[in-house]
Structures are given as structure tokens and as C-alpha cells.
Amino acid sequence: MAKTTTRTKPTTVKKSEAAGSAAPEGAADIRMIPLNQLEPSPLNVRKVAASASDDAELLASIRETGIKQNLVVHALSDTRFAVDAGGRRLKALKQLAEDGVIPANHPVPCLIEDERNAILTSTTENLQRAAMHPADQFEAFEAMIAEGRSEDEIALKFGVSVDLVRRRLKLARVAPEIIEQFRAGDLTLECVMAFTLTDDHDRQLAVWNAVKGGYHIHPQSIKRQLTETAHSANSALGRFVGIEAYEAAGGVLLRDLFDDRASAHMENPELLERLAIEKLQAAAKPFEAAWKWVEVHLSVDYGAFRSFGRVYPQDVDPDPELLAEETRLIAREEELAAQNDGEDWTDAETEEYYAIEPRLREIEALQRERQPYADEDRAIAGVVLTIGHDGAQRVEKGLVRPEDIPAAPKPDETTEDAGGAASPARPNVTPPTSSTPVPTSDPAATLRKADGISASLADDLRATRQHILRAHLAADFEVAFDAMLYALCEQALGRSYNNEALDISIRPFQAQNREVLHADTVAQKMLEALEQDLATDWMTLEKPEDFRAMSALPIADKQALFAWATGLAVKPQLSSDNRPSAIIEEIGGRLDVDVAACWRPTAQNYWGRVNKGHAVATARKLIGDDYAEERNRERKGDIAAAMERAFAETAGETEGFDAATVAKTTLWLPDGMVFAGASRSDVVEVPDQVDPEPAADMSDGVSDEEPSSLPAFLSGDAA
Asked: Most confidently modeled of 273-287, 314-328, 342-356, 513-527?
């Protein structure tokens, strides 16, 4: 054990203001008195002993740094002195001498006073002594860490626990403005500790401004506001995704640094919800081929499944091995339960008993999984996958939407037709027990939220995509005719009263901010050129002359008018929408619509409206880590401008990217914008060698080399 660093002082030194205790009137001076001549004073007013931990801290401090404050004594004789103030220091020094750290006659600085003042001095020292403020401790410890000292070394020197040092250092996570409020007494230490849930000083100050006007500021109210948009890691959603998967995806975890239970909150709810949706969607894939529909929901209200009808699986003989295991487990459970209510169980038997019930539930679920559903039942029913209250995946099969429940057979209907053949089996559906609307799910919106794609931005992307599709559809009579005929037949032949692709009443879709979205775009120029060539002179005539004139038009003019009108009726959607119309996607694929040739993401229409993480992740995937890290250090406005340049048609010239990178960035589109089946898509197969293409001249809105999906009248081959 190291020797004390206390230096021996002269036998008598002149009293100064540096003396640890104020000298009463008539006091002499400070003398160095051997330790073995000092003893506790019966006049010391401290009767209640300090805690063992406090004494241990003092002992460690004196061992490391020596006595920093003199004792106050009165003489009992020439060689005996009673310590009126400093009894704990005396006790620590005696312990060090007993341990052999210092000699028994180690000199100790003492202020000698008259015995008559002993009680006054002892009371004054104990009452007026103030503990160091935790904020001052934090700054002192932090300064020592900056000097290169370790947490263990600081704890040893001051006789405190390493945990206390770490707790004080954790206050470095708190905004200086809040620390100053703590110094001023406006906040308790517990409240300051609550702010360490997040490192974001702006957020801390926002919460402080929200709570400081309250009558009483409580740590829990601070924690609640800091985590009001977060999910507890112990919530059903948090347990379903898991902390490891959440952090691996870049999620920020708020941990209560002062909570021994290490409670945590997931600060990125959009990311957490996206991970949950993706996990549910992956689990839903195996059901899609067998059932009419499959949906995923993050949560379903209690009793919501009563809004569905139900079909049930067919009975089959249970699996003999599972049945035998179930019988054995039930017998063992009863055997253990009979042993004096468990009082005589060993640890192994206790563990065995409490593992039986979960396994019995597993066996029951496995037996149910073996029961098949009839083909005719699955043809009208669906499956919902959601998250249970315990954070486990919940699968509900055999749900029938009210509109899919077959009509009850008429009384005169028989099970055989006129020829004696049996009629097809009719599903036996248990009707809904609640009239509450069937719950709806929009996982697509949840997935977009994590990238910062708001509902308004998604609407704009739909409107942009619809505008491009309309321009191509208006230029192709054959596809327009087939699409319109399909929609007419759906209504006229009674198949449907809600056309999913076309509104045959021809109510033109108009985007809310179409003047900004469509101005000077390729699609708008296509539509303007088409409209100029329409044969519309007949519309100036009176009825029915106008009809006769229209009927006399050449077939080509009629086809152009038909296609133009059909294009007006097409509805907007993204292919990533929840339950998108397959007909619209088929129309776009058949028209070979190249969205990337008609629209590029800019700072105004995309990059400035999504979150930074989505932009950086996209750059990392398509361009590279170095470029992404450079963007990650920029402000949002600068990132948006840089991403606009990087994903423009001229990226090869302006950004200096290699040909392979240009081949990816110039074709990239947000999720849902591509028409499946078109010649180009955002999933780009990059060849080993890509010949750079000359930049397109878009000064007139049309490139020198028009994409093949543009109509002939816009290409150089037009007659």
C-alpha cells in the first residue's frame, strides 16, 4: 500500500486564513502534533457516527492525498490532546497507522484552542460544513478525465465508488443550460439524471422549456416527454422486432443510464414500425398462394376479428407422436403437483414443472396447424398476421370479409342439379358477430414513413406517375380501347360496380398542385402535342350535327379522340401502395412506360422532402460509402441539392461518376414509381463495361434520342 503524501511541517506555523477551522479569540497557533498524542474529545458534539461508506471514502482520500484540513484540539496535558473538530479524520489516521501506512507518531497539523471553546468549535464545523455540489463534482471529475486519469484512479483518490464517478460523468450528456438550472436549485439531481435519456441537447432544452413552468417538476414527467414518440423496448412492438435488429438497422436507442434495470426506448418509431411490417410481410409470404387474401397489421383492436365471417379447418386425426408427448407431459405434471404442492421439489423439478404448460400450448398449436382448410374455403377466406400483446406473432386464418360470404341457398335448391350430378360444395361460413367495420391495413404507408415520405409526397408521386401514364395511354388507341372496354364490361355485365383502374364516368383526375408538378415535364409536352392534333372542329357544331360530323371522321382521328379521353380517366397509384390495381400496372407495362425518362428526383420534388437517413442510405447503395459519408456531414438543404445533381440525366458530366454508377443513378426511381414489365426499371443490372452516352439536350423538353416508349409523333422518325 502506498505511503501517504502528507509532508511534515514545522512544529509551529503562523495561523492563516488557510487554516481549516476559524480560530476563536485567544487561540494560539497551528502545531504539528504526533498522531499518538491525539485522542477523541468527549466534548465533540457529533454523537451519531457517519456511515461506513462515508468513512471509507474519507480513509481512501487521506491515504491518497493526505490531510488537507487541520484538526482543532485542546490540551489535556503536555503530551495529550483532545480532538474537538476532526474526529473522523483522526479515526482515519489511526486506521492508517494501524495498517502500517503511516508511523504511529506521524505529525498532524492541529489548531490548539482553549477548552472553553471546544463545544462551540465542534458545533460550528459540523453545522456549517457543505457537501460539494454534484455539478461541481461532475466538472472536476471531467477535468481529471481530460488530464488522462481513469475512473478507477479518481474513485481511489477521493474514496468514492467507481459507480459514483461514472454517474457524475454521465451528466456530461446534459445541456450546459440545464446544468446551470441545477446549480441554481431549479432542478433536482434526479431531474437532471432524467435528461440523460438522450444526447440531443436541443431536445433536452425543448423538454425543459415545456416542464419548467409547472408547479412541481418530476423526473418521470421529463422521461415521459423525452420518450413520448418512442416505443419501449419492452413493448409488444419492441419485443417483436428486437433491440439487435433495431440497432442493426440504424435505430437510436434511448437508455436510462441511471436505471439499474437498463430500461430502453426505441427513438425511431417509423423505423421500428417498418421493421415490424417487413418481418410480418416475410412471414405472410407462405400464405399468399393458398388464400384469397393476406394482410398484415401492426395491431388489431380487441374483438376486431368478430367483424369477419369464419371458415374452420377440417378435422384430422392428431399426430400420434405429439399426442403421446402430450399424454406423457400431462401425467408428469399431475405427478409433480401431487408432491406436497411443490414444497419438496428440487430446482430441476421446479424448472421441469414450469416448462410443461408452454410445451402443451405448443403441441396444441402444432396439432391445429395440421388441420387443413378446404380449397373452397380458402378461395373466399384470408389470413391476418399481427403482433400479440406478448410481442409474439399472431396468425388468424379463415377470415371471410362480409362481401365474400356466399348467399344462403334458396329453399328449393337441392344438392344435385337437374342431371343428378352433385352441385359444387358451398363453403360453410360462420357469420360475423359484430357489425364493426373490418379493420384495414396500410403497410405501404408505414414503410414509407421510415424514409420520411409523407402522405403529401406520396400523393405527388402518384400524381406524377399518373400524368406520365396518361400521356402514354392517350397516344395508344389499342391499349386505351382494351382498358376502356374492360372497364365498361365490368360494370355493364354486372361483375363490379367499382372499377379499380378506370372511372368510366370520365371525371378527369386533377392533382392538387398540378401546376407545379407537371410544368415543363416530358409528359406534359406529350399531352400538349397530342391535344393540338385532335380533330375537334365538329364540337363547334350544334347537336346533332356535331354527332354526324364526328361519326364521319377518319378512323385514325376517332382512335386519337378515344385514347385521349381514356387517358383522362386513369387513376393514380404507386405500385407499392396497399393492394394496388394490377390492371393499372398491366397497362403501364404494356405501354412500356419509362418513368425515369420522364421524371427525375430533384431537391424540390423529392430529396428536400425525405429524411436525411433515406438520402444517405440511397447514396451509399448506388454511389458508394465515401460519397454517402460526405453527404452525411452536410445540412439537409445541401444534401438535397447534391442528390439532385447525382441522380440527374447529366450526372456523368456534372459529378464525374464512372459509367457504371451513372447507369444506376440516372435510372433510379423511388419505390413504387416503376411499371413492372417496362424496358427500364430502378433495379439495374450494371454491365462490366458501360459506354458513356452523350447527355440529352432537354432544352425543348425532349431529348435528342427519344426513349422508345414515346409516341412516333415526338420522335425524329415521324413522317
From this structure: 273-287
- Residue 335 C-alpha cell reads as 405427478
Which string of DSSP letters, residue by residue, matches 578-610? SS--HHHHHHHHHTT--HHHH----TTTTGGGS
Tell me: pLDDT of 638 over 80: yes
How large is the angle between the packed helices 582-590 and 477-492, nearest 10 degrees?
160
Residue 337, C-beta contacts closer than 8 angstroms, at least 6 positions apart: 353
Residues in the chain: 719
The side-by-side arrangement of strands in the sheet containing 264-266 is 231-232, 264-266, 253-255
pLDDT at position 23 is 43
Tell which wins on pLDDT, 51 or 397: 397
- Cα–Cα distance between 103 and 36 in angstroms, integer? 9
Burial pattern 682-708, b for ≥16 Cβ within 10 A else e, equals: bebeeeeeeeeeebbeeeeebbeebbe
Q: Using DSSP, state whether 177 is helix, strand or coil.
A: helix
One-character DSSP codes across 618-651: HHHHHT-HHHHHHHHTS-HHHHHHHHHHHTSTTH
N- to C-terminal Cα separation, the chain: 102
Q: How far apart are CA 557 and CA 536, in angstroms?
A: 9
Cis peptide before 544 (omega within 30 of 0): yes
**Is it the case that residue 6 has pLDDT exceeding 90?**
no
Tens-digit pLDDT profile for residues 66-124? 777 788 888 888 889 998 888 888 988 998 999 888 999 999 988 888 877 776 666 55
- With a CB cutoff of 8 Å and minimum separation 6, the contacts of 309 are 399, 400, 401, 402, 404, 405, 429, 430, 431, 432
CB 95 within 8 A of CB 63: no
